[in-house]
Amino acid sequence: MSRSTDGATPGRDERPSLSDRERTILRLVVEGFVDSAGPVGSRRLAKNSSLDLSAASIRNTMADLEDMGYLDHPYTSAGRVPTRLGYRTFVDDLMNKPELSPVERQVLRMKLARLADDTEQLLRESTRLLSKLSNLLGIALTPRLSTGVLERIDIVPLSDNRIMFVLSVRGGLVKTIVLSFESDLNRSEIDRVVSILNERLAGLTLQEIRETHEERMKDLRDDTGLVQLVMKESALLFSEPEEGRLQFDGTQNILAQPEFQEPDDIRHLIETIEDEDRVVQVLENLFESDPDAVGQATVRIGSTEDEEEMDAYSIVTSPYQLGDTIGTLGVIGPPRMDYARAVALVESAAHAVNRPADDASSDAPEGRDD
Asked: Are the C-beta atoms of residues 238 and 205 closer than 8 Å to each other?
């Protein structure tokens, strides 16, 4: 089941207790508002629900829920809408079990399984499917490369006195760096250095390599200059990329939601998703306490105190694993979203993408301590 992370919303033990009638009516108001995007009135509930209650009785219960902070009354003559507390309680305690249809689960598995060998395409297709099936913004955060285990390093000579280093990380992640290097080395000389580098470095995380490469490679004798280049550029080769970890798809889908019809709301959404550093920080913070909860969705409604720019959005995410690294899949949308469907989609996609270290093929030798 999903977890909550809202910093400003009271936990279950701190919320006003609800009777069975109050719980039922709160659930119906949330579901009605999600469906219609308009305030839900007592007459509508009395007419369209299976409640054996008069409109007056429902109205009184809704007033009590408003007094407790679960509902709001936006207009004098309108019905009620859920508050952040109302959404949170619905997600935690009242919504139906998240499930996709067998056909949708099969479509997700089939479309993602055929891309299992191409991590970049796999994540791009994941965000596209999440957005298409939810009508929200699909997002994917690639894992931190610094925590990944190096399977192999390759060197590819390019034209114009340049060479490309290709770092293959367990789980299918790849990092490429092009460096200037003036040399007329033949392939056999390059292969010899590549073999030495892999003997010393494969099987270690990029962070371990960055911190210990001098000790591991100081005794090497190399006339090609390639080992010296690796030593000199180690911070660049084995560091975390500064950008490009965040992918998203479906801006057109989320802009079709009623909450994003005003120019200011559209501008704020675009500015928010284009601030990659901020979004990455928000997504990573969701799993700091439990980074291995693969396939278990977290639902955050609104923002914490230090992330006010995210207050207009809800985020449903789940971690996935590639080798030894953890990334994030999810959706972003307005608080008025179909949470059960969003949770089911995100959890199913995370399971489909997930490739833990035990399942990742790796023939790399263990890192040496000499």
From this structure: no
